[in-house]
Amino acid sequence: MTRTWSGSGDVSPAPAALSHLRRILASGGHPRFARMVEEAERHPDRDAVFTWQLDRVLDGLAAALPLDDGPGH
After folding, report:
1. C-alpha–C-alpha distance, residues 49 and 63, integer Å
2. What pLDDT, on the 0 to 100 scale, is given for residue 13?
3. Which DSSP helix (H) or strand (E) runs through 8?
4. How far is Cα 28 from Cα 32, in angstroms, rounded to an integer?
């Protein structure tokens, strides 16, 4: 199944960028990129994306905190 990138959705590329991307895909010279575009999720769940990104930030902050050995330390 081949999908075409219509540019529809919440964020659309500028017409010139869309035209350029279509030429890249049509050239056949970048199969990995074409596969990535073809398999891309059209409308990712924004809440899930936000939660995933927030978890990465909080994990990084937690790793920077000093260890707490309990009361009196």
Report:
1. 21
2. 60
3. none
4. 10
Kindly tell me the sign of the dihedral angle through the C-alpha atoms of 26, 32, 36, 39.
positive
Q: Indicate if the pLDDT at residue 7 is higher than 50.
A: no
Identify the three-state secondary structure at position 69. coil
**Cβ pair 20, 11 in contact under 8 A:** no
Looking up tokens 């990104």 gives 53
Q: Which residues have C-beta within 8 Å of that of residue 15, sequence separation ≥ 6?
A: 7
**What would the pLDDT profile of 34-67 be if each residue is shown by its tens digit?**
999 888 877 778 899 999 999 999 999 999 998 8
Residues 6+ apart with CB under 8 A from 5: 18, 21, 22, 25, 37
Q: Where does the pLDDT of residue 11 fall: very low under 50, low under 70, confident under 90, or very high at 90 and above?
A: low
